[in-house]
Amino acid sequence: MQTVLIAEDEPAISQVLKVYVAKAGFDVVQAFNGTEAVEKFHSISPSLVLLDVMMPGKDGWAVLKEIRESSSCPVIMLTALNDVNYRLDGLNSGADDYISKPFIADEVVARIRAVLRRSDSKRTDENVQHFGSLTIDFTAHRISLGSKDITLTPRDLSLLLFLAAAPNRTFTRDQLLDEVWGHDYDGSDRAVDLSVKRIRKALAKWPSSEGEIKTLRGLGYQFVTAE
User: Fold this and answer.
1) Residue 173 domain flag
2) pTM higher than 0.70, yes or no?
3) Of 45, 67, 157, 212, whose Cβ has the fewest other Cβ atoms within 10 Å?
4) Cα separation, 42 vs 7, whole angstroms
């Protein structure tokens, strides 16, 4: 079942949306401020986000920016601001649709379905790679082993996606720090080792005959796949 994250600070509006979206057959998770929205986005990996522009803490624009730094998850902006410039700002910042308040709840549900259909139609088989029983969806940022979804922290997920995008290529710790942690990271390169350790634990049931994250002593790490 697909999950919709509703990020709306007004409880009454959030509850109305929850009732209608759940009735349409979606799982619903609520967030009531920007910080909570970002945290729940990374923890549940929703299929779509309904994102209010005016929220305490981080506003909708800041939340949208953080989402787009790591995901192409569909986002529909909600706002009481009717000015066309706000709509353009939202769409140009990476939003998939824009709904002004007050709105009709049934229309919101229809928009959700339309945006999800468009999102699905954009996917190609190239975005989903199979490494034996391990499946990686690079668009949705989802990992599964057999029929079981694998849950990773955002950083560990980013590292696995980066390595898997270049199978059988070796990357040094410094390269991985620059590409995944960012050029301004000033911590220890042990962060890479610990992240790899956690990924291996999560993929413990992935047969080594199908692939593995291999350590090349003195060189770095490699996402090895079966020939």
Assistant:
1) yes
2) no
3) 212
4) 13
